[in-house]
Write a structure and sequence with these properties.
Spore Coat Polysaccharide Biosynthesis Protein SpsA, Chain A, alpha/beta, six-stranded parallel sheet, 9 helices, UDP N-Acetylglucosamine Acyltransferase, domain 1, seven-stranded mixed sheet, 2 domains, homotrimer
Chain lengths: ~425, ~425, ~425
């Protein structure tokens, strides 16, 4: 039983965060978590479909005791259908399980599908997530025996054919037939895979829906990173490396992973749940809470990191970074702050592909790409995105998104006059009452 | 023996601080402190004269075992005389003690007047505060037997008729007669009460002056709040609620009241004298000293509050708030600072009703009304006043007062160019000496 | 044996740092360290040549059991030659040792010269510092017996006549003859002393070079202060005054001198090597590391001082001061930061007498003169110099040097509009989940 793991998506809605497959959770890329979950559910043969943007990184991953094969999807515009067709020569006649790398689910979803697919009367199986309120996705229409009669995209609230939303965990006993059907449909079509399913159902394919009631969170928009972070925190086992150096006056509270080589200095606090990666320094008087700090970071003196995901080798210094997603190799000068609450306290919107989309929360900070350098005493407004390789000057207010590779400075001219104030040399001592 | 407590003043010189009767000291409104002091001195029958702006709040107050009645003064322009006349129908023929709610005195002043008024030869009693240096108020001119011959307003330094300043703690055995006299004088007159007294003295009224040598502080200008705060601190008994949660690494020093539900986090310090109200959070690494923090406040990470009076439900975050008066329901973004020292270190002046008035101190910060939202990294200049319901943007320097209901932002345009600096991904590791 | 200590230099390349002779190291002016080193090596008769700018301060110094005489050099443009000629009437016929006050050397250099000068065959001795790589100074050309045949200024890399650089520790048995020779040469010449030596050598003067392999560091540019600070730290003996008050929660680590009257407050950290002078306050949650803090300073709440030299009576408050040299009597408002790293992370250049000169390091902060007042939330760019008696406003970015006696402010006009946002009084409690 093969897994086709769909990992070719360009993560455009996540920009400037690079490829979401490589977002780190608890020190591992998301895609590794996905594969490990599938392995636990019994899968041991993986075809991962990537694009030119992430093929190299996918190839670098290593797993033991499984088959792990990378296939390139050339034309990423062809979406899920294109990804499956790209596997034509490697799928063979065995059962395949198509899984999206962006949907984080409880492992039980994979176990459910394994159990159901064994039924002789079933040709395919689709996992349906039981929802309590309307979700803007595809709904499964099912007959009395639990077989799917159609998949209805975004039916609108009140028109749902069931309470089951289509999650991309689909098993097909005859993948060749699916691929043949896909190839019949024009490659311009966005819903090519759904159209093919429909046509196969009409042709007699028996697709069983399995009801799934566990955790499910797609990573579609940047703020979903926080949801998934919380999920990983919930299941995290607290471990502090013996090799970590923790000052006597530092305080560690709650559920934490602290890796080898970590140094935590005097009067710093880690308020779990937190993940502190290899060789991270948390300097004096800093506070890290509800956050992931990836390896090599230096959290400088008097910095607060709250509810944030911090990439590798990020340097901070007397900053507040709250509800933010910072990619690898960024640095922030002393006194720079991420605003994370609008002054009118309304929900914070983010520009996603030219459209303002609400994050549905009133606490949201900064999103950055990789390799950013930010000066001292700068202020980022809530929900702002900074592209990779930007340089942001000192003392600025950044109220909107900055595209990658930009250099940003202010234009305040100083007024310089003769100083007419009499500055007394002894003023300081006078104030201390020593004169 | 009735108290006429004059509480109708509009506190114009205190703006944007709302009604000074409801300024909180040690968790109680000032007017409650006043009434409790009078109760201790033996009074149990109170007529409180309010205005339309504070009638409701006055009515909400509750006291046990006393008569507590609210009278509205319709025309506040008629001042003290108007207030007394407003009580015409409720005073009766009993002795009344007229007390200003704005003069904070040691309880002994009330006891003194109670003792003196018992003398049969006396019709009225006025408390005279013994002063050592000139004070710009009314001075008592007295004869050899200690009876007042006139009250001389602001005589000028060197021309004082005595060393006794008129404090509004006045007992009259025949209030009806006083009211009749007041009604004879034109209501346009500012000094109507004083003119009436003068006329009564000429008509044979025997007003005894009692010399008072204890604490007296009128709250006339905002900075008087600090004087009164110090007075309450001096007499405060240290108590820490058993219900308060204080982290092991937090430090509590000096004389403090810490109320129930308070949480003090790691590496925070409370340096008394301090009052920390119900449910206040003092977060990690913060410092509160010589300050009152009213209930519901969140003093966020790495904030210093020094010598300040902080209203209810105020939220701070990595701020410095020094020598400031912050009213209820305000919030300050991370990195925002109240300047509290001029760069030339001269005394700080404040705009009071269109006039610059010196606070007579070189340490004075911010004065705010209620319900203000301030962004991150903003700088308030010393002695600035911000009206209620203002929104103050991020990264600003606020050099002058802002009227209520304003939205303030800066106008710095960013210069955005292509970034030509080569940013090395490995720069951070190089700096750590790891490459 | 007399020392002629050359201390008249105007320290122009060090500006705005005042006279480098009085730069403090471990609580003593540099020139006192120099004289004490010479005393240890056996010298007990000092002629210190000063200029009008520092004569008074030189005269104030006191030493026990030595002759200590101050001579004024009137025309400072005449450099080293002028300084020596100024001593004509006081040198007598005894051996003199000419020493520059700006060259910090291991005491062994002085011992070496004392030992060598006893040789009967030698007229003069010059210390030559053995160098491993090219240094832009004067090189000693020597013959097979170790006698100097000439001094070659800046020969260029690869053309060095030896590996010995001329340090101004020069002994002459016949100072009168040297002075006669100097007076023959035009006073306009920059290299008058070197020309005189050359001429004396040609006339048969036997100058022995002594090879010196120990520590040598001239203070020529401001960043040399850091090098010399490190040298003093290396040789420093850790001592904490019994009279210092150190809070129980404060942390002292590494090699430190903490003088009498010092107070270190809760949750502060001193990470040695550090020198903390008399009566210094290090307030709550501050961090001082690898720095010298001279007497009378107040390091306010939540300040970090890193790798810096801080003059007397400097007040900080929630600042970051890194890799900086701050002269006496300066103050910095809360939130003000010294940038100490370029955003492109290149080496930092400093304007020295109109020329950009690289500090050869990518970590360099602020250099100030004396008696500066800086407002809150201001940002200094790396390598900037601020002249004495300047006032720097709040919320500014200071990207270039400011001459002395200037008043600097920004020119951001505020935009003030009616506030249309509905600010809910209960918002804070809602956020805390209390409503």
């Amino acid at each position: 039983m093969k897994v086709l793991l769909l990992a070719a998506g360009k993560s455009e809605r996540m920009q400037p965060i690079p490829d979401k497959n490589f977002l780190m959770f608890l020190g591992k890329p998301l895609i590794v978590h996905q594969i490990e979950s599938l392995i636990k559910a019994g899968f041991d043969d993986f075809i991962v479909i990537g694009g030119s943007h992430n093929l190299d990184k996918l190839k670098e991953l290593e797993f033991k005791n499984i088959n792990y094969q990378i296939i390139e999807q050339k034309n990423l515009d062809e979406g899920m259908a294109g990804a499956i067709i790209a596997c034509e020569e490697v799928v063979g006649n065995d059962l395949v399980c198509i899984v999206s790398s962006n949907d984080i689910v409880d492992e039980k979803a994979y176990e459910l599908i394994v159990n159901t697919v064994n039924d002789e009367n079933v040709d395919s199986v689709i996992v349906g997530k039981k929802v309590k309120k309307y979700f803007p996705g595809g709904y499964l229409k099912i007959d009395s025996e639990g077989f799917i009669t159609s998949v209805i995209e975004k039916p609108g609230e009140g028109n749902e054919p069931s309470n089951l939303v289509n999650i991309v965990i689909h098993c097909h006993k005859n993948p060749k037939k699916l691929i043949e059907e896909l190839k019949k449909i024009s490659s311009n079509k966005d819903d090519r895979y759904e159209v093919a399913l429909d046509s196969l159902i009409k042709g007699g394919l028996k697709i069983k829906a399995v009801e799934f009631d566990g955790y499910w969170q797609p990573i579609k928009f940047p703020w979903h990173v926080f949801d998934v972070m919380k999920y990983f925190f919930k299941n995290m086992e607290s471990t502090i490396s013996k090799d970590a150096q923790i000052a006597d006056t530092a305080v560690i509270k709650g559920n934490v992973i602290i890796k080898e080589g970590v140094r935590i200095f005097d009067h710093a606090t880690i308020n779990g749940p937190c993940y502190i990666g290899k060789n991270v320094v948390v300097a004096n008087n800093s506070l890290v809470r509800d956050s992931m700090i990836n390896e090599g970071c230096v959290i400088g003196y008097s910095t607060e990191i709250a509810r944030s995901s911090i990439g590798k080798n990020v340097w901070t210094h007397a900053n507040y970074i709250g509800d933010s997603i910072i990619s690898d190799n960024c640095s922030f000068g002393s006194g720079t702050v991420t605003g994370n609450l609008r002054l009118d306290e309304k929900n914070i919107s983010v520009n996603i592909k030219g459209e303002k989309i609400s994050s549905e929360t009133n606490k949201f900070g900064l999103i950055t790409g990789e390799n950013i350098r930010c000066g001292i005493n700068t202020s980022f407004m809530p929900g702002v995105k900074i592209g990779s390789n930007c340089v942001i000057g000192a003392g600025l207010v950044i109220p909107y998104d900055i595209e990658e590779n930009k250099f940003v400075k202010g234009n305040v001219k100083l007024e310089i006059r003769e100083n007419k104030a009499k500055l007394e040399k002894d003023a300081r001592n006078k104030m201390r009452g020593k004169i």
